[in-house]
Amino acid sequence: MKLRVATYNIHSCIGRDGARNTTRIAQVLKEIDADLIALQEVETLIAHPESVLAELEQAAVANAISGFTYLAKQGHFGNVLLSRIPVRAVEHIDISVPGREPRGLIDAKLTFDNTNLTILATHLGLSPGERRRQVRGVLSALASSTADVNIVLGDFNEWLLWGRSMRWLKRRFNKMPALATFPAHRPLLSLDRIWVDPAERMISLKVHRSELSAVASDHLPLIAEIEL
Fold this sequence. Notes:
22% of the residues lie in helices and 37% in strands. It is an alpha+beta fold. The strands form 2 sheets. The protein has a 6-stranded mixed sheet, with helices on one face. Strands 5-6-7-8-9 form a 5-stranded mixed sheet, covered by helices on one side. β7 (115-123), α3 and β8 (149-155) form a beta-alpha-beta unit. α1 packs parallel to α2 (51-60) and α3 packs parallel to α4 (164-173). The radius of gyration is 16 Å and the shape is globular. The termini are close together.
């Protein structure tokens, strides 16, 4: 059995043209066609808080696990995990650093094809010191996992391939490919990552490039095929 997972920073559904368009993001989710999708920078609307999530759920044919970290001007803002697989348990872990933007970690436990999975979905901060503290939180959550397969994915905001936080993750997961996903129209930086343990379970890793994904957000989606 194969599992398709993806991570996608949807930039509050604001595209390169400056327009907020949830339907455009929903169409990209249909193109991705993944079993699990970690979304970052999801922003709901105060007037209609369920409308954004409902449209994304319908497009992905999945259930949404919200991991909103704060109340923004327009509504709640943060992470969402879309899953086609029933989730046995979820823990929301606060990895915020005082004085910085609130950040969170979605820790989801699933079972698929008799394989126990731990999924950790997150969006790390902008400063190096902040990211180091947050990666310690991610590694701490991993240390308590008894799953057969562990998957960590999200926007890690690390511009340097050999930043200290990346070195810690590479030590834990072995070397994983770093593919450029940002900016969407001309990708240069590997901000979005998918880490899998055991590493040999990852069959492929690719960036999803399409006419729509190039304009729907400032990031491109990253997709991994995982062998169970």
